[in-house]
Design brief:
Elements (H helix, E strand, L loop, with lengths): L2 H6 L1 H6 L1 E5 L5 E2 L14 E5 L3 E10 L12 E8 L4 E6 L12 E11 L6 E9 L1
Antiparallel strand pairs: 1-2, 1-3, 4-5, 4-7, 5-6, 7-8
The structure holds zinc ion (ZN).
Length: about 130
Amino acid sequence: MTVARIWRERGRRYRLEAARCKGCGKVFFPGRLVCDKCGSREFEEIRLSDKGKILTYTVIRVPPPAHTYETPYAVAIVELEGGGRITAMVADCDPEKLEIGQNVRVVFRKISQDGEKGIKFYGYKVVPA
Ligand SMILES: [Zn+2]
């Protein structure tokens, strides 16, 4: 991942900035130009809640190449309070013991690192609440 991309995506990556449609109230994360529900192009910027529930999750046993995550780990789709969904790694848990509907909270953690002394990338993960 490039530094330029991290800068460009900083609002979304670090502040959970999302867009709420002014026409129908649907929340998009990341934001988009046209609402797929009502066709409106008017959005207001909101911050997503850091609390939510697991909608579904999958346990990853074989990590993608170049990643050094300890396996197994879980990736969940989380429905946040007040609207908005994020896909995030679930940290601080036994991935075999997660449940659909479980309460989680969004935290900021190191996601990856370029080599031992390389750039560290931070982003959001969720942990059991
Ligand atoms: Zn809409």
